[in-house]
Structure formats: C-alpha cells, structure tokens
Amino acid sequence: MASIPDFSKGQPCEGTSGVLPAIAQDAASGRVLMMAWMDQVAFDETLSTGQAVYFSRSRGRLWRKGETSGHRQRVTEIRIDCDADAILLQVEQVGAACHEGYASCFFRVVGNDGGATIADQRLVDPASVYGKA
Amino acid sequence: MASIPDFSKGQPCEGTSGVLPAIAQDAASGRVLMMAWMDQVAFDETLSTGQAVYFSRSRGRLWRKGETSGHRQRVTEIRIDCDADAILLQVEQVGAACHEGYASCFFRVVGNDGGATIADQRLVDPASVYGKA
Lengths: 133, 133
Fold this sequence. Notes:
2 copies of one chain form a homodimer. Chain A has helices at 40-49, 126-130; strands at 20-26, 32-38, 53-56, 61-64, 73-80, 87-93, 108-110, 116-118. By secondary structure, chain A is mainly β. The model of chain A has no long low-confidence stretch (mean pLDDT 94).
C-alpha cells in the first residue's frame, strides 16, 4: 500500500528509493530527541510494528532504533508535513535517545559567537551501553 | 568564523556548500512547527540576526522565513546534534508556520492504515496571506 510520505521527494540514498528526514519527539516532555532518516521500508515497518525504524545512511541498512542499546522508541503518533517530505514521530523513549548517552542528541547549545556548549547531563555512560564510547 | 554545524556533511544542493536539516520548535508550546534546510550562509544570518533564515531548495536561494507572509520566527535558542549535522531552533512564531495556514506544517496524522487525516485547525486563510492558496 502506498504510504503518505512521498519518498520520491527523498534524498537519493543507495539501497533505497530515497530517504526523508524523520524527527523523534518525546511524547511526554515534548523534547526533540533526534533527527534521522527513513526510507519506505523503514516507514512501513515503523507503522506496522509501532517501534521506530530508521534507515542508517552510514551503515547502509535498516536501523531498528535500540537494537544494540536496548534504547527503543515506541511510537505513539506519526505526523507528516504539508509537503509530505518530512516525518514527525511522537515516541516513548527507553533510556537515552543519543548514542553519546544524552536524553536528546541535541545536547549542545550554540552561543552568539557560534561556539557550542554542552547544556545537558548525560543519562547513561555510552561505554556501558555499547561496550566502548 | 567556522560554525559548529558541519555543512560538509550536508546534502549537496546547488548554490551552497551543502544543506542540513533544521527543525523549528515553538519555544512556548514545544510544538514542532516545521523542518527546512539551512546552508552555511542561512545559518550565519540566523545566528547574527536572531531571525530564522533557511535555504529554499525549490527556489534555490535564501529564504528569510516570513518575508512574504510576515510570519517570522524569532530564534531564542539554537542547538546542534551529536553529529553536528542537524539543527534545532527554538522560535517565537508570528502567525502560522505553515504556508497552508496551519500553526505547524505537521497538521496531518498518519493512521494505522497509512492514510493521513488533518488533525488541526487552520489559523489563517492562506489566500489572505499569499494572495492565493
């Protein structure tokens, strides 16, 4: 079945018919947790399983979020934007969304001078999750 | 001055040295309003002016958000993600973020069957803002 996101508008990405940006937002706190990519297969699996599945451009394969860390995302709502080329997930996040151990990948604030400062506390030690940092 | 977002990781886009996804979140409500793209020039202007500036891939030029509609975004915080390839803005939105007149571009919810349903109310009539819908 055709899905609403229009993957033909997606960025070219080998092994896919295009990838679209997907934003994961914490359903409880409203915090934006991460931005990743989905292809049609990842989107369909997300929709059918209720667990966030992305397409990892660096690994060139589906990325079932939490498959290594256990930090899964249960999806409570999926929205698409006006142009059908961006996806917004509301998720219940287990553990830390970020592979660096922060609740959100957006843990750095950019100051007026363009420099970045870590503004959050680590939730977990990445070494304890992935074996090494 | 080099900025923290790494535009060399961006998607190729003519007239730029790469574009990165930029998410605008309402600073007051936490609502994700839109996802657009920034190149280095757009990012630098956003940082220096405190008004959201994107790069419009369809128009091939800088897009000073609200330049036609008046629906500007005053930026109260800029964050970058762990990989320095996605940008998160907290904004004070004037009017409607979406060119279709909705507060957020993400006004459609995807159901379990893959179909989309409009879940929000229009804030403004696009015809009154842009001259025609």
